[in-house]
Each structure stands twice: as structure tokens, then as C-alpha cells.
Amino acid sequence: MSFLAGGRVDAAAVRFRDSWSRLLRQGHGAAVSPGVLGPLVYRTAELLSRAHGEEPFDPGPAERAGALLVEAQFTDPVVLARAVELLQEWPASDGRGPALTGAFAAGWSAALRDRTLREQEAIRRAVDLARRDAERALYASETRFRAMFERAAIGIGFADLDGKLIAVNGALQEMFAATAEDMRGLNVESLVHPDDSAGVWENYHALVRGEREHFQCDKPYYRRDGEVIWTHLTVSLIRDEQGTPRYQVAMLEDITDQHRLQERLRHQATHDPLTGLPNRTAFFERLEALFDDPGPGARFGLCSLDLDGFKNINDSLGHDAGDQLLGAVADRLHSGVAPLGHLVARLGGDEFAVLMEGSQGPQEGIAVAQRVLGSLAPPFLIGDQQLVVRASMGVVEQPVAATTASAAMRSVDLTLYRAKKEGRGRWTLFDPQRNAVAVSQYAMSVRIPMALDRGEFFLDYQPLCALDDGAMVAVEALVRWRHPELGVLGPDEFITTAEDSGLIIPLGRWVLLHACEQAARWAARFGDAAPRMNVNLAVRQARNAGLIADIDRILRSSDLDPGRLQLEITESAMLGPRDPALQALHELVGMGVSLTVDDFGTGWSNLAYLRDLPVSGLKIDGSFVSELHASGEDPVGWRIIGGMVSLAHSLGLSVTTEGVETAADAQRLRAIGCDCAQGWYYGRPVRPGEITRRIVEATGGTRADGEG
Amino acid sequence: MTRRRWVPEGTDQDVPNVARVYDCYLGGSHNFAADRELAREAVEMWPDLPLIMRANRAFMRRAVQFLAGEGITRFLDIGSGLPTFGPVHEVARVVQPKARVVYVDIDPVAVQHSRLLVADDPLCAAVEADMRDPAGLLGRPAVAELLRPREPVAALLLAVLHFVTDEESPARIVRELTAALPPGSALALSHGSREGRPDLVEKHEDLYARASAPLTMRTRAQIVALFDGFRLLEPGVVYLPEWRPQDPASVGPHPELFSGLAGVGLKP
Questions:
Q1: Is residue A208 a contact partner of residue A178, using CB atoms and an 8 Å limit?
Q2: Is the CB of residue B85 less than 8 Å away from at least one CB of chain A?
Q3: Which ipTM did the prediction report?
């Protein structure tokens, strides 16, 4: 052993080794595992001893000892200083001390320099790798965003805060029919359109000032070719890392088609397709708006106009001619009145109206009426016919505050009615005094009980004929009201009122009684040749608890065989499977009365429970056949009717088609297999005497003795 | 509103980085001027810091070798930093030559450095993850793979939870992370405490305000509470050198000067 010089312990060597061991076990050494530290202490002490004692002097082991310390992370300069001190305190016989110490320090420093460079390299490499990873992620994200920008289906454009466009994507170029070059440098503030919604530019300026982050609106733009596109526009502000506004990005969705559709729907909803004039809805909107916030002393005028004898023109010249005439009338009204700033509308049928906002007095209303009537005076050329048309007008001119929209409409209708009554082709100015006695819906319903007492109602009958041989198998009873002021009214004109008010119950009872009495008379006289009696049953009647008792009593008092009575219930009012009134219907069938579904095909009906209703037939609504006429030869329409017939037959129901007007209709329906028909071709609603005459004619009998 | 940083964390050499500052204390050269400047100031203010850091490293060594001796072969080192001086896999393999280690850090530079270190080692991996999102961390493929066989795992949270603020709830993080560990797993934890050198705590925290992660030193009670659900092994939560010293004499007369508290717990 080198520290045993000459076989005896060298005290200085032992001192050095102890101090060396202490030095390495403190500071950093305390953190080093004893399993590592022990061998390190031993190995370095050994190397230094060799450098100290071996002959000739070799600095190599001392350098290695310095390097080993650095390898074990003894990099603290304090350790080096202390080590140098210890080595210097250990005297060497040949004066090699400084060289040994120098070699040790050089070994330590060289290792530390190597280590430092290696570690610096490693950490920089790690930084590079981390940065490259981040760049790759950034590049991938940039690529994704670029692809999204370029291929997005919506138009996207970037602009600076002055509004100058910096980049636009393909979709936006397509929307504007412009190239990227056309658009780059364009200022978004120049893209104004007269239909820009209020506030869009205020929002824009607030955004570029950084006062809002984004806004949305629908906005029209001119394309490069001058066309207009409508877009749903979203503009957002882009800020930098410090939060300072830098750019704006606009996203545009082309909604031109939706916009057009919406405009068309709005036009359709508010315009009459035949004449192109605003319709009833639009007219009432404007009229009601007038009453929303009237200025003090504001007045308005309202004219209602109705062509005299229009029905005759329709009947004699056909619907096409009628429609052409309505179109021509609308044109004259429009060109005569619209320039004055008034609204002209078609309320329906041959009924037109004029609204004068801000009129000055009754004379203005009269002037408009005169102008309108004057404009209609020259004959109309329809086809090759010259038609002279006259019209009646009601005129109302009042302070807005004096009335309401609906009261004004009532007033003008009644005034028109008076104009017609007083001789047509004239205008009449509204007179509040006379209005007081005029008839309203309310007045009508109030009058029904009195009308029943006074016998103002009467029944007409319309034949239902078998299609195979044309025999009249039944008649439908149709109620009319001979109104003392309004003349003869058809069921359309008062049944709804009667239903609403509940007066349908006594009225329906009256109808049933008189129809049954009539049917019984025919039966008594003609036996099996007498027609079955069809009577309409309103929903409200069907739900009336007294129905069964009423009918039972009526059948008894009229002495009519229940099998001769058929009740018609409308499809739209058809009862659901759990409707309590269903019970009543079953009881009626139990009594021998038959039931049929009226107006089939017009309402919503659940075919599934048509099966469960105790009905024996259905009547296909007249609109099906009349629409076939309107649209010319229509195989699909006929197939629909055919389908309804076979459906009914598969349920065991007989089918009557209404609205049959020609021999061709009848022929067609016969071919389809329809059972019965009703309509002008087989006879209009007529007085009972006429029915009697037809029965007599059919039976070849001679007892045609008038009304039976 | 938080904005995306375009310079990835840790690659900005002008911002002191806690992993590299730690390396300074240990006498390494994996660091840049800004890191050394912060370390220099910190040591000037608190000259024992390098000692404390070494003591922390020594605690790691003892804890890992103890756990490896108990048969644990899987180690999850969360907040591993720059594992330069005696990395966990080297320490563990003295006892368990087949030990597996997954190094996890939030700092991409530290992760890249660890990757270079274990590039040729199939039993080790380095993963970038944020422990404040335990589910995300546990979902990393390398971590999931470490846990998959349901063998006991030692989770190491060494000198890292003091970089988590109270708002981010270190207790929640520990709870959620260790919930995923199978029974028999271990938690080794060390944490800068407010005890030992209360006079220096605030100054030290202030200094780190300019580093990549701010520092929150905690009380002993707060640190003990982090072992909720674990059976604390003897000698409990103690100053760094006091935890199972190999040589009782190495503890020294004033362990409190080391300030950092440490402990190891077992999951029942």
C-alpha cells in the first residue's frame, strides 16, 4: 500500500485520507448514496496516493481523481479549493506537491468543462426539440385553419380595422362573382346597399373601435355583376395577445334563396294571386295599424266595392271570363286610386276595398268613390266581348278616434249593402243613424227564434240519383231563410251563426220535423218510389243530450219509417272514437236511421276509425269534381276519387259524389263504380213540388197534384 | 381572458424555469443565464437552498430504494423536471433491475430532456402533462400502460405541489391522481414548508413570482392532509433528512433548517 511507506504507517498520509473522506462526505456528498460515496472516496484517495508516492512521478492518476469527482457531481468550486488545500498540506519528499495539485485541478477543470458543455448542449437540444414540436403543432394548426378557410362553404373575409380586405376565401369570391384580386384592397365600408338594416353600420363602427366583439345581421350586397345577394353576416373582432384590436373577420352565408322564398311567401300571404292586389290579410293589417297610434284629429276613409251582377257574368260566360274581368277591374282600380296614395285590395270574390289614410273629410271619400266608379264606366273587353260593368260602393269617412277597425268594416259593409238595395251602380256614404237598425251577425242570431216563430225558414230539396239508372233515390233537405230585409239566405249565410249561438238546436229540430213530415207525405203517396230523406246534422246537435228523444218523437209524430231518414254528419266534425256522442249515433242506427259522412275529403279524418263509426255511406265533397273542371283533364284527380270510392266500398259504405255538373262527370263516376251522384246535372235544390213532379214523372203516374 | 402563448412553455430562455433553477442548485449546467440569476439571488437570500435541494434529492433516493425494496417496480414521477443527478430509474434499478419509470412534467423542455435521457430504454418514458388535470394526465398512453396491469405503483410528487396554488387545490389533485392507483401503491411526497425558516418564506415566494411557476409553501398540517387515504409510514411527515436516514449521524443537529417536509404513505 502506498501510504505504508517503508512498512510503517505514514501519519501524514493517514491524516490526508481522513480529511479527504470528511471533505467528500459533506455538502453534496451528503446527498450521494453511501453505496456510491464509499467506493468514490476510496478510489480517489487511492489515485492521489499513487500520484503522491509512485516513482517516477505520474500526474495521470491525480487528473483522473479530479475527473471522478466531477462525474459524481462534485462540481462546487468550494470542493476544489478545499481539495487543493488538503493536497498542499500533504508534504511530498521530492517537491512534486505543486505538480500533483496542478494535475488534480486540471483533471477536475477539464472534466467540468466537458460536463458543462455536454449539459449545455443537452439542454439546448431539449429546447430545440420542444420548440420544433411547438412549431410542428403550430404548422399543423395553421394548415388545418387554412384548409378550413379555403374550403369553407361560407364566405370568409379578413380585413384590417380601416376596412381594407386582406384575404377572402373561394366561397366569398363565388358569392361576389369576383376574383381575389378584385376584392383585395376593397374597403368593406364601400359595400353599402340601400336595404341595409338600421344599425348595421353603427354596429360595424363600434366593432372596429373595439367596443364590441362581434355582431350578426342579414345584409344584402351587390355582386360584381350587379346582382344582389342576401347574406347572413357575422363580423368578429380579432385582438392580439395584448388585447389590442387588430383585424376583423366576416363570415357570410348566402341566404338569397331563403330571402327570396320568404319575400315570395310574404307576398303570397298578403297578395291576391288573381289580381296581384294586396289581399284581405294585408288590408286588415294596414287598417288595424291605423288605429294603433292615431294622431289627434286623424281621419280615415274606407270604401267597399262590389260588382253588380258578377255572378251572372260568371254563370253565363264562365269562370275564366269572370277571372279576366276581375283582373281588369283590379287594374283600373289600382291605376285610378293608388297614385293618390290609397291602398286598394281585393277582399275576396268580386269584393274590393280602398283605404284612405289621413283623409280630410267625407268629401274626400266621396271623391274617391266617384273616381272609382268613373274608372269602371268604360266597357271592358273580355275575350271578344265588350262588357259593361257596374259596381256599388259603400263609403265611410270618420275620425279614427270615433270607431275601431272592425266597427268600420261593419259600417262599410252595411253601407255597401244599402247602396245595392237602393239601386245599384252607385255609392252610398255611411250614415250612423241608419247603421243603428242595420243587420249584423249578432242581430241575425238574435232574430233566429223570432224567424222560427214567424215561419221565415223553409226547405228546398236536392235530388241524389243512382248513377247506374239515374233514378232519384234520395233528396237532401236544405234550409233557407226568407229574411225580411236581406232576402232569401242560404244555409252558408246563417248556419255558422246558429251553431255559434246554440240556436242550431231549435233550428235543427224544426228542419228535421219538416223534412220528416215531407218524406212521410211522399212515402204515403208513392210508397217505395218515394225518395229517402237526407238531413244535415250539426255536431252540436249530435252532442245534444236530447237528440235521440227529439228524433224519436219526430219520427213518431210524422209517422215516418226510420229507414227513410238518413242523417249527414260533416267529416270535419267527425267524432273521435271516445266521443260520448258516438253512443247517440249508435242508438240512432239502432232505431233504424242511417248515417252518412258529408263533405268527405275536405277535413282531417282518421280513416282508421271511419270503420268504427256506424255510418253506411259517405259523400265526396263537390270541390273534388269542380277542381277537375278547373284544371281540365286530370287523371290524377280522377284516380283520387276512384281511390276514395274503393276505400269506401272496402269498408262496405255506399258513395255519393257531390258537385256533378255534366253528363261526362256522371259517365266517369259510373265507370269508377261510384253509387250515387248529386249536383246540377241531376237537379238543383228545388221546392218540394218540383220533387213531387219528378217522382210522378219517373213512376209514369198521373197523380201530379202539386205539392205533396 | 387567457390568451394562447405562442412561445411554448420553457423554451423562452429569458424567463427563469423552475426545473432549470433546480438544476442550478444541484450544480448542473442544464440552465441559462436567467435561471442562474434567479438561483444566485435565491441562494444569496437563503444560502441553505442548495443543501435543501440536495436533501430533497437524497430523500428521493432513499424513498425510491425503500419502495423498490418493498417490491414496487413501477414508478410515476410527476413533476420530474430535469432528472439529471441520479434519475429515478437508475436509483430504483439498484434494487429492482426491471423497474419501470414514467417521467411526467408540464415543461416541454424538461420532457424533451428526459426523452433524450431514456431514448434507448424500453422500460422508461417521458410524458408532457399538467397535473392540475389529473384525468388528462392519467389518460396519457404511457401512464395508462404503467397502471394497466394493476400492480402497485409508486407515485412520486417531489417538490412539485408547492408550484400548485391553493385555488388549484393540491388536495384534489392528489386525491384524483391516487384514486387511479391499485391497492398496495405508494405515495412519496415532499413539499416546501412554512416551518423551519418562517422568516424567509415570503421573500422566497416573492422571488419565484417571476419564474415559470409561482411558489406556495404550506404548513405541516396542510402537507400531512395530502396523505388522506394513505397509511403514513414511519416516521411520518418529517424534515427531509429525518426520513429514514441511512446514517443517523447525517441528520445533523438542526434538521428544521432544511425546511422541506417529506413522507411516504401506502394505499391500503
A1: no
A2: yes
A3: 0.84
